[in-house]
Structures are given as structure tokens and as C-alpha cells.
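We emphasize that the prediction below concerns an isolated chain of 153 residues; any contacts that depend on oligomerization or on bound cofactors are therefore not represented. The input was used exactly as deposited, without trimming of termini.
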Amino acid sequence: MDVSDILIRTATLQDARIIHSFIEQNKFQKDGKGSLLSVSYEEIEKRVSDGDFFLGIINENIVGCISLIEYDGIAEIRSFIVLPEFRGRGIGKALLDACILEAKKHDYDKIYALTHESVFGFFEKNGFVKVEVPEQKLEKDCAKCPLFGNGCN
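Result of the prediction step, given as a C-alpha cell string:
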């Protein structure tokens, strides 16, 4: 597969159920499984309506998603998933590039991504560096995670 075979587009409301399914299948669990913060269907609809979600598509099938949100002056990558059978093909990089470009359009010079140590190398290759978790993130999202204070990495 060539990178030119990947279509990146902004999600529409018709895509919200698929995005929700991707997130639900990959949300953090108390047993340590999962890699994404849970997001309600209503929140996904709102973020899609705001233009915050991008999709990776191959052969007309959605194979990944990512969102860029802003709160309290922070631009953050969230809900970033590529289906396992499509990883290593440039889809993740294309999705991340779309978010970086969008952040630049909104004059953000820094973008935050809370991620697992196991995939930090991907972000590092794309110019990210380790920083402390912003207080806004701890208060808004981390406190709601089943791993917060109990195995969070």
C-alpha cells in the first residue's frame, strides 16, 4: 500500500457511530487494557460537529481516527486509533499530520498528547517531547479514568 492510497478527511455526523465504536473497543479498563479515554456518543457528535475529528480511510473503509481539541489554552491530540491490521502503513502519521496542520491554522505552537510509553517513540519521531501532565488535563480528564491513581502510566 502506498501512502497515496490513504484518504484523510474531516469526520461527519454520519461517522459518529463508527468513531464511538472504535473508542469503546479501545477505552481504558480497570484491568489495564485499552488505550483511550472513554468519550460519550453525545460528546463525539459535538466534537464532530465542531470539526475536531479526522478519519483515515482506505478503500472507502474507516481504519483510524484522531481528534484535536482545545481547552484552557491547550491543544491536545485525543482519541487516536488505527485499527491493528492497518498499523505500520503510514495512516497514523497521516492522521497526526492532519491534526498538526489544523493546530497551526489555529495558531497553536504546542500540541499535547497523553499516550502510553509503548507508543511514545511514534510521537517522538514526529517532534513530540515528554512534558509533565498539565493541571487542566488532570482535573478535566485524568480524574475520570479508571487507571488514575492506580496504575496510570
